[in-house]
Amino acid sequence: MAWPSLPLEPSGSRTKVGDGTGGGCLLPRRDMTQASDLRRSLRQARRALSPRVQLSHSLALADCLRSSTIFLRARRIGAYVASDGEIDPLPLLDVALAMGRRCYLPVLHPFAGPSLWFCEWRAGDPLVPNRYAIPEPDPKSRPPHPAWSLDLLLVPLVGFDARGNRLGMGGGFYDRTLAYLNHRTRWHRPRVLGLAHELQRVDALPTNAWDIPLDGVVTERCLARFHRQRDRSDEERVDIASIF
Length: 244
Prior knowledge:
Blueprint lengths: L28 H19 L3 H15 L3 H4 L3 E3 L11 H9 L3 E7 L7 E6 L6 E2 L5 E2 L7 E2 L6 E5 L2 E2 L5 E2 L5 H5 L13 E5 L20 E3 L4 E5 L7 E5 L5
């Protein structure tokens, strides 16, 4: 099946000049080393959680979000297949499917560089390993869609801080996929929530100009680190029930 030729971002979404790649200059070597060390330690910490604790955290997160406004208003929800100790969104997707929502999982875009599109997923659908051995839907079976077609996107992360900054795996897939959100005028989809274990919270993370700010971060403790995307200095830490 040929991939559709839809743009990676919606027409008219930009407010300033940019190439939409989500790229930029490299971090100084010292910051790169610190980020690499932090990434390694946080991945080890989440992998050390027992299967019982992993399941408990996933169920608690699902119970937290299932009654939130941001979840109830979303008709098309993107998520991910958990690996490497990531908190598992599957219990929440089960809830979404039971409520009649449409759920989507990421697939590697074959020619748009390190970016993602999303294929609809239903319980029982087979997944196939991509070139990184990560399971994903088969785009030959279900057509892929760009990120801006989703209402809500749940993203994995390695670390986060109280300002809503996200430390990913370092590949830049989500930053490139969502680059248009840093230049938008009126297109506000999807809302982006990071999912994590509380132990992945750190005091502060280095930031880059191309980073995509999160609308919030949700853990098993039902807390959100939320800020308004148009003003990165306007931040607060509150219970998620009072935001969403």
